[in-house]
Each structure stands twice: as C-alpha cells, then as structure tokens.
DNA sequence: AACTTTTCTGTAAACGATTGCAGACATGAA
DNA sequence: TTCATGTCTGCAATCGTTTACAGAAAAGTT
C-alpha cells in the first residue's frame, strides 16, 4: 500500500488543483468530450492513471440521472435456472460497463415490493425481475415505469398486459412435450404435480399437460393433479396419497426437478421400479436430475439463452431510453423454445 | 397506475413546497431527527406515504458518504457453497436495511480488479470478497482500505497479513478428516486431486491430507497428487493417468465434489466397483454428491454458518466505522468448523 | 415585565460531477 | 491592422439531500 497523502486524489477538483486546470476540463477528458487539447488530455489521463482516481458514481449519477446499474430481482439464487440466468446476465452486462444489484425475494411478495422500492431509490437504469410465484398484482413496479425506468420480466411474468418487456420459456410447450412423451410411451394413468396456479409458468405447463391428454383422448383426473409449492416434502405427501390405494398411476409428471427427484426417491423406497412400473418426467434440467440413478427425463429451458436474450433486450431498452424519452412499448412477449431431454426414467 | 401528475413527487423540495415547509424539515422527519413537532411529523409522514416518495440514494449518499450498500465479489454464483453463502448474506443484510451489489469474477483476476474498482466507484459501505483461485496479490483492494471502506474476505483469502477481516472454513482440518477417514478404512494407496496451490484453501486441504498420511506412516507419492482447476474434464484426465497401469490407487480424495462426481462416473465407466475397489471422498457437500449412486462421502462446510458469521462481522464493522474513523484492525481469522459426512462411496 | 430556556423551523452551504454559456487565445483572411 | 473563425478552457449553476447555525416562537422563571 502506498502512502495515503500521495494517492488520496479522489475528487475532480483535487485533480484540477494539482494540474492547474478547472474541474470542467478534467470532466471533459474523463467523458471523452471532443473539444479538449490533445496535450491536455494526455496530461490529465496520465495523472488520473497515476493517482488511481475513480469517478464517484453517486455524484455523476445525481447530475446525469444515469447510474450504469441494473437491478435484478429473483425468487431464489439457489434455483438452478436462476443461477444460470444471473450468471449470464452478470457477464453480459459487465462486458458493456453496467453493473448489477441483485435482490432475492425468497418467494415473498412483501420482500419483492421492498426490493422494487429500493431499486427505485438507487435510481437504477433498468430492472429485470423474475417474480414470486404468488405475485398477482404487479403495481409495486409502477413507480419504476412512471419514472421511465424500463422493466423487464422473465420466467414468472405478469399475465395481464403490463408496460414492460416480457421474456419467458415456452412453458405451454414444455408441459405438452412432457405429457405427450409419456402418452406416446403408452402411459394411461398420468398424475401431475403442479405449482400453484397463481403463477403463469404453472398455468401454462398445466395447460400443455391437459392439451396433450385430451389430444390422446385420456380423461383428466382432478384427484391426480396436485397444486402446491414444489418442495420435496410436498412431493412426498402427494406420493403418499397416490400410492395409498389402487389404481396406481403409471407415470408422474412434475413441474420441477426437485419434485421429480423426491418422487423418484419415494418410489425407490416403497419398491416401485422406475421406469418399468412408473415413469417420471421433471422440468428444468437441474444438474441433479441427470446424475441420479435412474436419470430423470426432463425439460431443458436453456437458461443461458434466456440470459442472453435478456441482456440483448435490456441493452436495447437502455439505449432507446437514452435516445428518446418515450415510454416502453408494450410489445409481444419473447418466448424461448424448450426441449425434452429423454433419460432413463422413461 | 395512477395519473403521473398526482404521484410525481420525487424530491424533498417538491414535498416541501406542497406542504409549505422547508426541505430541511422534511429531511429531519425522514431521518427521525428528534426536534420535530409531532403534528408536523405526522403531516409529513402521511403525505410521504400518500405520494409514495422514495429518498434518492445518490443524493443522500453523496452528502453523507453512506450508501447503505455492501458489495460482494464471488468467483462463481453457480458454486454451491457460494450460492448458499450469498443467500444468507443477502437475507441477513436486507433485514438490516442494507442492500447488496453482487459481482462475479469468473475466476479471472482481471475481472476481480475491475469489480473492486467499480465497488469503490459506487462508494459501497463495505466489501465482502471470495477471491479468484489465482489471486496472489490483493493490492486491488487497497483503494477500499485507504478510503476506510472495510473489507472482509471469506473462503479464498489472502495468506499474507492484510488489514481486513478474514473468515474461512477449516480447510486444514477438512483435508485431514477426509484423508484420516480413508486411512482408518485401511486404504494405503490414496491419490489426491487438488486445486492449484496459488489458493489458500487448496494449500490447507493439501497440508491436512499430508499430515494424515505422515501420521499413519504412509509415504506421500508425488505422482498421485494432481494440481489443476477442479473441472470434470481435468478429473477424467487424472483418472486416465492413474488407471493407465498398476498399481492402482485404492482411494481417491478430491478437493471438491464436482471432481469427486467425475471420478465416480469414470470409475463406473471402466468397471471399477465403488466402494469395494475404490473409495472416494469429495469436498463441500454439493447436493449432487448426496444424490448420486453410490452417494459420496464429503466434507460439509456449513455455508449457512459462514454466511451468518459474515453478516455479523460486516454489521460490526459498519457500526464501528460509523462510530470511530479508525482503520480496520488486523485481527485473527475466524475459522468455521467442518465435518465429515460419511456416505456410500466409502 | 424581563429574562432565560426549550422547542421547533428555516437558511444556506456543502457533497462531486456535468454542461450551457461565454471568454481567451490563436490562426487565417482581407 | 482589423475582423472573423475556430479551438480550447473556465465560470457557475445544477442534481437532491443533509446539517451546522441562527432565528423565531413558545414556555418557564424570577
């Protein structure tokens, strides 16, 4: 560590004094304004480099109303899809000079509201959000929209029209693919463990599931569909009910992989052979689903693609916002394709 | 969404004008200053509530030099330990009114430098960092220390004295426990797949490994120790070398679970029975290590505990910094205990 | 009534960077 | 020499909040 005195140049006016220039000139150099003498520019740059000056983002943000920061709200970091998406977003934005403030709602609507407000307080340039599975009312994002901060939803998104960009996986098709796969294998008694229908992704997956069944003229048994938070414990409860008395299902479709894994483990415990006596399909391609024995068929959502599209869209919004003071257009959602990955559980 | 005109009160002076008060009074209300008339306070609070005013953090941060924001640098979000630690930190700080800026270095020293600089530019109140496995020089954190921003390292930390809080798992004991366990089971030919020795955690785990071997009077075979980034591909390469010709090892100890899993899968492929012919121990208790067949013995690091201690320490530093302008004391590292989890692979 | 004390509120100057405007200087043209 | 043009630099106001200080009003004391 060098001596304090020498390096403690952390405001533009201190630089100015040392170089016998005005703060204005320093600022112009730092912002690549054209009308600065090349010699002056070089002198300033050299000095800035030497003393390791770093622009105070708060001061410049206050003046310019730009923070070069994007806010991100996710339900849980630990969910595989989000981990991947966040990583992609972070890398993408960092490459363009933006940084990220990340908040986790823990699937609590209250915390989500709080986070939205905090992000507005920080005057981030844009907000990306994957909502709680219980968020039905999105008005806590209004304050952002009203102040021309673009909002972009992904994964769990508003179902009513809302003036924000929307990016989501093709959940309807995912549900349809999973169910069709089981039906094509000859399954007739398919149970479905769904998340709560307050959330678009579970609505869509469920709709895909029903579409496939009706197409194959299989009646939908209401008592074989479960709606609850997709935890391992809930999955075990559902299994307990399903295998309390015959007829037993010959396939279980789960709306996420945590559930599928819990189902598989329960089946192993009570001695049901998978896939011979019971086939299982999950959703999301969590790394665990590929590693367990037997490995579980699942739906790949391509989180890296989702992340890339988000980055592209957010950069577009940021540029657009910079050029025109127009409000965000309410365009069609962008839908990222999904794919079935067949494994040993079917 | 309500009409713009009515709600667009986003500065203290607009509030002041509307209420026929001075900005100073509004500010005092917002900051719970004692000397404000109760009636005035209630009137202001009600209005603030009604129009949904939110303090501009940049302006207040500029004035007070406090941002209520903590910066966090991690190598990769996707590493299980970090996912857990981040979650704990985020929840803990949020409960105390702080928010987090998270950056990911991707194990690149260059990006890490960049992130440290950016966090300083944002004038965060404190920085928490788990470094790259290649970071040997920590001088890019100097700028923070010099400006009285407390720094707290965890997991991958400086080995030379550095004026920052240090919190780490007991890696020496972890390495020792893992190796001792194998030795007690009678293993005589233990190979060890380590991370690069530029990083404290791998140095310590390695030291623990050697200590256990020498205690059991087993010579350390240099050609059975590998030092490289702990990826699945590298693990397979190591296995390829180890099983090219006899004598084969009777146990493999891996410095993380990704490697242990790759080792197990390779062993399955070439028909080596685990644990009969080969025992495997991993490190970190990644969820996958418990779910694979056979499940893998590993070292639990208690990431949630690490996170809790970090939160407690960081809050302590923030308070302390607020009270006295003293520099951070260079205290002893805090060491979080680890535990061996025995599973089917041994 | 004259005074101190207490309680509240306003004034104005910061914090550090940016930027419209104008001034200084040099260069070229007539 | 005089004027016009172009290039560079500085002045000063601004962003929104905080806070030392002072002033005003109310309450209490003698």
Automatic annotation (TrEMBL), chains A, B:
One Pfam family linked to the record: LacI
InterPro entries hit by this protein: HTH_LacI, LacI/GalR-like_sensor, Lambda_DNA-bd_dom_sf, Peripla_BP_I
Matches recorded under CDD domains: HTH_LacI (cd01392), PBP1_LacI_sugar_binding-like (cd06267)
Transmembrane parts of this sequence: none
Domain HTH lacI-type, chain residue ranges per copy: 11-64
Keywords from the named record: DNA-binding, Transcription, Transcription regulation
Molecular function GO terms recorded: DNA-binding transcription factor activity; transcription cis-regulatory region binding
PANTHER family recorded: HTH-TYPE TRANSCRIPTIONAL REGULATOR GALS, LACI-RELATED TRANSCRIPTIONAL REPRESSOR
Designated name of the protein: LacI family transcriptional regulator
